[in-house]
Amino acid sequence: MDRSHGGQAGDAGGDGTQMTATVIEARAVEKSFGQTPALRGANLTAKRGEILAIMGPSGSGKSTLLHCLAGIFIPDKGELWFDGHRVDEMTDSRRTELRRTAFGFVFQFGQLVPELTVSDNIALPLLLNREKRKSAYAKANAWLPRLELDGLGERRTGELSGGQAQRVALARSLVMQPQVLFADEPTGSLDTLTGEMVMELLVGTAREEGATVVLVTHDARVAAYADREVMVRDGKVINRAAAEVEVGR
Q1: What is the CATH number of domain 23-102+179-249?
Q2: Which pTM value belongs to this model?
C-alpha cells in the first residue's frame, strides 16, 4: 500500500524511520456519556509512522479518546481528522469503511471468533472486504511465521494461549495494511513476559509496515515501547513531562 500521500517529510522515528506530517488529530474534543463528561477539550496529534502511547488512570478518558480517533464515537464538540479529512463529519458508512480498510484494532482480549481457526480469523477482514478467498488466505497465512504462529493456522483460536491469541489478533489487525493501528491495553490480560513478547512483535511489525500506532495503556513498561507518551487527566491531554512535574516527580 502506498502511504506516501498526505504529508511532507518530518521528524525521524526512534528507530531512524522517517515520519511525516500529522496523520491523525483530535482538536478540542469533548465527549460525555449522559451527564458524565469523559473528554473535556482533548487535543492530540500523531505523525505518520509514529508510535504514540496514551497513558492515564482508569476513568481518565484515554479509551474514549482512542474510540473517538477511530471514528467509533462521535464527539459532542471538537474536530477529528484523519489524513486531511474530517472524521466526525463523515457518514456512518464512510467511517465503517475507514475502520475496515485504513484502521486496525487490537484490544485487551483480542475479540477473536473462537469457533474459527487462526487462519480464518486473520483472513476475516479481507473476506469482509470482498477479497477472493484464495488470495485472502494466502495473505493471512503469510503472517503466521512473522508472528511466531507457525503450524497453528488450522487450530481454533479458543484453544490458544493468551499470548498466541493476542498475536493472532495483531495479525488480523495488520493483514489489511492499515495506516493506523489502534491498540487498547493490548497486554492487559497477559503476564509480563508474554506481554513483552507481544509488544516487541507489535512494534516491530508496525514499523515494518509503516503504520502509525496509537496505544492506550496504564503500564509504563508498555508505554516505554513508544516514540512519545502523553497523559490523559480528567479528560484532557497533557504531555508526560508536565504530568511528572505535576505529581512532584
Answers
A1: 3.40.50.300
A2: 0.85
CA within 13 Å, CB half, 137: 8
pLDDT in the model for residue 245: 39
Q: From CA 202, how far away is CA 199, in angstroms rounded?
A: 5
Strands 77-82 and 22-33: antiparallel
* Per-residue pLDDT tens over the stretch 170-216: 999 999 999 999 999 998 888 898 889 889 999 999 999 999 999 99
Residue with cell 473528554: 39
The x, y and z cell numbers of residue 59, run together, are 476513568
- Among residues 92, 111, 89, 109, which one has the least CA distance to residue 100? 92
Per-residue pLDDT at 158: 87
Boundaries of every domain in the chain: 23-102+179-249, 113-177
Q: Return the pLDDT at 190.
A: 86
- Strand, helix or coil for residue 203: helix
Buried b vs exposed e over 187-202: b needs ≥16 C-beta within 10 Å?
Answer: bbbbeeebbebbbebb
DSSP-derived letter for residue 75 is: P
